[in-house]
Amino acid sequence: METVAILDELQGRARRDSALRSKLLETRSADDPVAAFCEVCRGLGYELYEMDLIAAGEDFYASMRRSTNGGGENSPMLEGEDDFYELFFAGLEETGEGRD
What we know:
- By secondary structure, this protein is mostly helical.
- The chain contains five helices and no strands.
- Helix 1 (3-16) crosses helix 2 (18-26) and helix 1 runs parallel beside helix 5 (84-94).
């Protein structure tokens, strides 16, 4: 399963399961939050490592740059769109605690 599909599936599970959502959100306060997040994911059966998150974000960003204005010098600078880790949590926090 590719990284984006893992994150989508995991986010869906966490939206339905407040205990899982809390467990994932708690990883953000770890000394190494990304490593802690990936460790929880692996514990849930998802083979996800830190470099998977980084590579997926960079691949997505590179595709976006290539698709705008030919990907040359005039391509817009995109900020944050390549950080699937942060986007995962933004979507998770958007659900709110009272929406189980």
